Amino acid sequence: MLIPVLLGMTIITFSIVHLIPGNPAQVILGEAATAEAIADLEESMGLNEPYWVQYGIYFMDLLQGDLGTSLRSKAEISSEIWPHLAATIELTIFAMIFAIVIGVNAGIISAWKQNSWFDFLAMIIALVGVSMPVFWLALMEQWIFAQELGWLPAYGRQDSRDPIAAITQFYVLDSLIHLDFERAFTILKHLVLPAIALGTIPMAIIARMTRSSMLEVMKSDYIRTIRAKGGSQFLVIYKHALKNAIIPILTVIGLQTGVLLGGAILTETIFSWPGIGRYVYEAISFRDYPVIQSGILVIAFIFVMVNLIVDIMYKIIDPRIKY
Amino acid sequence: MSEVILELQDLSTHFFTDYGEIPAVDRVSIKVHKGEVVGIVGESGCGKSVTSLSIMQLIPSPPGKIVGGEIRFKGENLALTTEKRMKKIRGNEISMIFQEPMTSLNPLFTIGNQMIEALRIHQKISKKEAKEQSINMLKRVGIPRAEQVIDEYPHQLSGGMRQRVMIAIAMSCEPEILIADEPTTALDVTIQAQILDLMRILNDEKETAILLITHDLGVVAEICERVVVMYSGQVVEEGTTREILKDPKHPYTQGLIKSLPKLHEKEQKLYSIPGTVPKPKMDRKGCRFASRCERAFDRCFQVDPELFLIEGERKSRCFLYDEKKGDGIDRAASSIRS
Q1: Percent of chain B with pLDDT over 90
Q2: Can you give the residue range of the structural domain that contains B222?
Q3: Is residue B153 part of a domain?
């Protein structure tokens, strides 16, 4: 299942880039280039080969981890893309931790105390959370917590006057490797605002999904059985009901993680977060086709991988699921 | 007769819905003695399941609520006890099995996990001991390859096997009473007989009283010593199984027994009681069965009949047995013979 999807993705990204009007050689050499110069460059770039040969070369390069060269920086995309990808993954991990911890627990308590004041409050917050535009939330956070209160930094991944010697490009991990806990704390502080901005919508969706899924499960016969066995409410909810309710919640978590990994351009721009969203966005404004193509491919690849992990987790949770 | 261990006294459970208050269980009194098998019989919606869930304090609440009466279990009134105390009683002193063996076990945990959990809620024993006890219990309820089954998931077992597992779980803490809410309804006939046999064996061995809820008079005849017939939230007749089956007093019970298919009679069409069970509602005047009763008279529509004592423990909620209105008995007696 995974292989045809990935193969299809390479074909689609390849085709889209080739369907875009304009000749890359012309773009590189500029308006004033002569026809001979363009033909020479096309020759050297392999652009005069038939499409399927070009795709074959591209695909073989891909298999070796070669994503091509950026037109703008002339650097290898595969090495250039990693720091951006790591920045996005790190932000997504923290945003999703925030979303899952709060969303799942709020959903559980809402279902447990259905129609209580907590339930109403949590569901109102969830409704506001899904309806709120991310850019507005991000700006409000910056205004309140950075501008007015001065508690947290508003921009970037770290203190720019004192950059970290990156190893893995995951800055929290890097600073822990260096045993530099003070730096780790600073980097965590930089993560708070963007993670909350990014995690709010997933949190709201997860909370609502958890609530409805739990309510559904709580009505089932086996929950009654556990009560009849003398099981406590805690055992009923956190062991038996949650495990049964978790599958739709996991699906939502998987999809939301994929969305955050690929589509956080707005948040990354507001918080000057050097992530993959901004990397692709900048490539689009410079018409850097190889970067756009690679960026889309990498995002799609991650999306597929996240969902693969979710599928594997289904199987672990529910013994009845067979592939 | 041995001591009474469970006694319901005028138990009333009402449901508070958008359509008003519904008296699902209306002043029900039932006694269960030690080691006795008592059946509660009635059609769907007559309140028999709600009665059993009320004893366990497992009524979905809201909307359900016990509004009156007592549930005396070994002298203690469960209707007034705390949830904490109920947790100690459930599964330990009073156990329950349900109609749907297919959905009554959590599909995501192994049989062993769910059995060990039941033991460890009430007893301070190690997982290893609990597992050994569980395997023994599975063997006792007649599960072959118990050592393997304990590590299997519910979906790998058949309905009959799952009901055996449910019984094993319910009996694992050696309760005083087992409440069985239609335990055989979802099973096919051969498995039904096996499950009933199993329950009878456990009843003999451990002197566990069984409160069996069913709509099947065949099941009652098979296993019960005493029967309580319920109709529209009320007890309408009470007596030993033999008395009820041979000589039903209440017109409703008579109708139920008449509607059983008989092997030796070649009737074209089975008898059925005309009409349907009226929905229970508050402030109903008169006998609940009156509108379907072939022998109802004026008084039946105006006054709520009480449970008249006929003789010994034999009771019937029908004016035909009201001694103050002597003419009823003669009429009843003549109609039974006919």
Answers
A1: 0
A2: 4-93+175-231
A3: no
Greatest CA separation for chain B: 68
For chain A, give the number of residues. 323
> Number of structural domains, chain B?
1
Split at pLDDT 50, 70, 90, the class of B324 is low
A230 touches chain B (CB under 8 A): yes
CA distance A232 to chain B (A): 7
Hey, which bits of chain B come out as E strands? Answer: 4-17, 20-33, 37-41, 64-73, 76-77, 94-97, 177-181, 209-214, 226-231, 234-240, 308-311, 314-316
Look at residue B326 and tell me whether its pLDDT is greater than 50. no
Q: Quick check: A58 and A51 in contact, CB under 8 A?
A: no
**How far apart are alpha carbons A250 and A178 in whole angstroms?**
34
Q: How far is B87 from chain A (nearest CA, A)?
A: 4
Nearest CB neighbour to A221, from listed B100, B109, B118: B100
Q: State the SS3 of A127-176.
A: HHHHHCCHHHHHHHHHHHHHHHCCCCCCCCCCCCCCCCCCCCCCHHHHHH
Which residue in the block uniquely carries the two structure tokens 């138990």? B11
**What's the farthest any 2 CA atoms get from each other in chain A?**
86
pLDDT (tens digit, 9 = 90+) per residue, B151-203? 888 888 888 888 888 888 888 888 888 888 888 877 788 888 888 888 888 88
How would you classify the pairing of strands B226-231 and B234-240? Answer: antiparallel
Closest listed residue to residue A270, CA positions, set A219, A210, A194: A194
Task: Please provide the DSSP assignment of B115-164 as one string.
Answer: HHHHHHHHS---HHHHHHHHHHHHHHTT-TTHHHHTTS-GGGS-HHHHHH
Contact B98 A221 (CB under 8 A): yes
State pLDDT tens for residues B118-127.
Answer: 888 888 888 8
- Write the pLDDT tens digit of every residue in A89-99: 888 999 999 99
Distances (CA, A) of B48 to A103, B11, B28, B33, B45: 40, 12, 10, 19, 8
Q: B95 and A228 in contact by Cβ < 8 A? A: yes
Q: What pTM value is reported for the model?
A: 0.78
**Is B325 within the bounds of a domain?**
no
Using an 8 Å Cβ cutoff, are A202 and A256 in contact?
A: yes
Per residue in B220-236, pLDDT (tens digit) is 888 888 888 888 888 88
Note whether A132 contacts B: Cβ–Cβ < 8 A. Answer: no
Query: Which CATH number characterizes residue B43's domain?
Result: 3.40.50.300
CB contact under 8 A, A230 and B105: no
- Asked if residue B316 is part of any domain, the answer here is no
| Res. A301 pLDDT band, cuts 50 70 90 | confident
Query: How far is it, in rounded angstroms, from Cα A159 to Cα A173?
Result: 16
- The predicted pLDDT at position B266 comes to 67
User: How close B174 gets to chain A, by Cα (Å)?
Assistant: 12
> B52 — contact with chain A (CB < 8 Å)?
no
User: What's the pLDDT at A151?
Assistant: 82
Cβ atoms of B199 and B164 closer than 8 Å:
no
Across the interface, of B58, B103, B106, the residue whose CB is closest to A227 is: B58
Q: Do A222 and B121 touch (CB under 8 A)?
A: no
B229 touches B244 (CB < 8 A): yes
Query: What residue in B sits closest to A229 (Cα-Cα)?
Result: B91
Give yes or no for A318 touching B (CB within 8 A): yes
For residue A79, pLDDT beyond 90: no
Residue B310 covered by a domain: no
